[in-house]
Write a structure and sequence with these properties.
Helix content: 25-40%
Strand order of the largest sheet: 2-1-4-3-5
Oligomer: single chain
Number of helices: 9
Length: 221
């Protein structure tokens, strides 16, 4: 289904940005995290209901969202917080150092298409430590076609980071929010067969049955 059809399908929830029919806010679970997480979102990403940057922002307590425009550039002072080392996640960065206290780290996630994120990295890379993560496997971000292997969504990059820090419980909770976001997004686009296939390998079927049942009940009405 084309994006124009999705946008004309009715009003969208102001929080999850999905069509009201497929709003997933009933399944929202706030997550407290020792990391300070900031999202630098390209302005073209800011209106898209598929954005996982906004998912991070509404799920992690204390996280912050910054909109990036080249003509209205932010500065390091606008983003960097005192008392923490700023890491900017990007595949071109240095490997994550070992034995780091997550409470001492501020993470900046670059949210945009591949070219947009690369352009943002060039602009903000000097603000802190450009850091890469060992990421493997297959992306579960079925809402957009991955152009080639090894590319993951913004929230998936954060999931890898949480695992690297040993924050498995937080990673689990955030993954549930991410998988629910993808499933509802597929259904909102009329991709029912694909959504059912996605659900077969998703933990939300067991973890969030009430939320899924509520979505289906709305459909029957």
């Amino acid at each position: 289904m084309s994006r124009s059809v999705v946008l004309k399908s009715g009003p969208r929830c102001p929080h999850c940005q999905l069509p009201s029919r497929w709003c997933i806010c009933a399944g929202l679970h706030a997550i407290a995290c020792p990391l300070q997480v900031d999202v630098l979102m390209h302005h073209r990403e800011s209106w898209k209901p598929t954005s996982t940057g906004r998912l991070v922002n509404r799920t992690l307590t204390g996280s912050r969202l910054h909109i990036w425009r080249r003509e209205h550039g932010l500065t390091a002072a606008d983003v960097r917080l005192p008392g923490r080392d700023l890491w900017i996640l990007h595949p071109a960065g240095q490997p994550m150092p070992p034995n780091v206290d997550p409470a001492a780290i501020q993470i900046l996630l670059l949210d945009g298409a591949w070219r947009e994120s690369s352009a943002m990295a060039q602009e903000v890379g000097s603000w802190g430590r450009l850091t890469s993560l060992p990421m493997s496997g297959v992306s579960r971000y079925w809402l957009r076609a991955q152009q080639e292997g090894g590319r993951f969504s913004t929230v998936e990059a954060l999931l890898f980071l949480l695992e690297a820090f040993g924050l498995a419980s937080m990673s689990h909770d955030l993954r549930l929010q991410f998988e629910l976001h993808v499933y509802a997004g597929l259904r909102a686009r009329g991709r029912k067969a694909e959504a059912e296939e996605f659900l077969r390998d998703s933990p939300i079927g067991v973890a969030l049955p009430e939320v899924l049942a509520q979505l289906e009940t709305r459909r029957l009405r």
